[in-house]
Amino acid sequence: MNQRFRIDMTRSALGLSAIMVWAGACGSSGPTKQLTDARQAMQMAQASGTAQMAPNRMQDAQAALDQAERAHKDDPGSNTEANLAYIAKRKAEIAMASGKTVASMHKEDALNQQYQAKLAQTANSQRQQLRAQALQQQRQQAAQASQSAETRAADALQSLSEVATVKHEQKGTVITLMDAALFQTGADTLSDDARSSLDKVASALEQQPKDTQIRIEGYTDASGSTASNEALSQRRADAVRKYLEQRGVDGSMLESIGRGEANPVASNSTDDGRASNRRAEIVVKVPENETSPGMPPAPGAPSKNTRPNSSAKSPPEPQK
Q: How many Cα atoms occupy the beta-carbon half-sphere of 54 within 13 Å?
């Protein structure tokens, strides 16, 4: 009986040993905890988009995990598998950290670009506002300067009242020298008194805007023929124009026209009346081809430095 008991115990011990060996063999075929952790870390890295942010780091982590997987296949549960899996996990974690850093830098760059864009927009808006203010200020200054220039120009013409008659008519401002005969009978040479008066006229005309039209109209008395008077009046107008130009008036503003014996300002029956009719009128700001009220227009359009072909003689008018 004792021998049989020993045999049964031996058989039980051998069966238990076989079960333990089988169980150990089955347990060693599964992955180590390190490999399981490495796989989870890699899944988290892939899910977080690390492959886009840190592709090189992800390649290193994947290569390390592949080595751990091969070690598991060759020798499941071995120390080699565990060591390689640990390295793969750390590389996956490093890859995720690098990806987060890159993502943070991208976000920071995007925010900085937005800030710079807003800053540039604000600066541009401020520049536009300052530009608009400067433009408005320039316009105001230009308007003030123009108004001041117009005022000075008008005052300059009015200041001629000491040496000339200044009238504002429909055709413009008409300046007629007084108290001195401009020309001797039959002559087109300016008298000394006329030159002195024209010096002041030139100073006033220089202050007029550059687009001002200044027309010098030459006149004669009734002595001589109509044709000769027309030619003489043109020479007289030219003489005044040339003198004004010599005294600094812009020649492009000047126009000279001979009117002959038309539109007398005094009677031609007296010496004083004829002297008054031998005159030159300076018309300021007059459009071309326009005539003064009451004066018959010259046939044909008058042009610079030309005389009309009119031979009509107007009746004497009362002295102005």
A: 24
The answer to whether residues 69 and 111 touch, using CB atoms and an 8 Å cutoff, is: no
Cβ atoms 201, 160 nearer than 8 A: yes
- Scanning the structure block, which residue is given the tokens 């002559």? 187
The highest-level CATH class for domain 153-284 is alpha beta
Domain borders along the chain are 30-106, 153-284
CB 256 within 8 A of CB 237: yes
pLDDT at residue 23, rounded to an integer? 43
Where b means 16+ CB within 10 Å and e means fewer, 129-149 reads eeeeeeeeeeeeeeeeeeeee
DSSP secondary structure of 32-59: PHHHHHHHHHHHHHHHTTHHHH-HHHHH
What are 177-234's pLDDT values in tens digits?
A: 754 567 776 778 888 888 888 999 999 999 888 889 999 998 888 888 999 999 989 9
Dist CA 70 CA 75 (whole Å):
8
263 backbone φψ class: left, alpha, beta (φ>0; ψ -120 to 50): left
**Alpha helix ranges (H) inside 159-256:** 192-206, 226-246
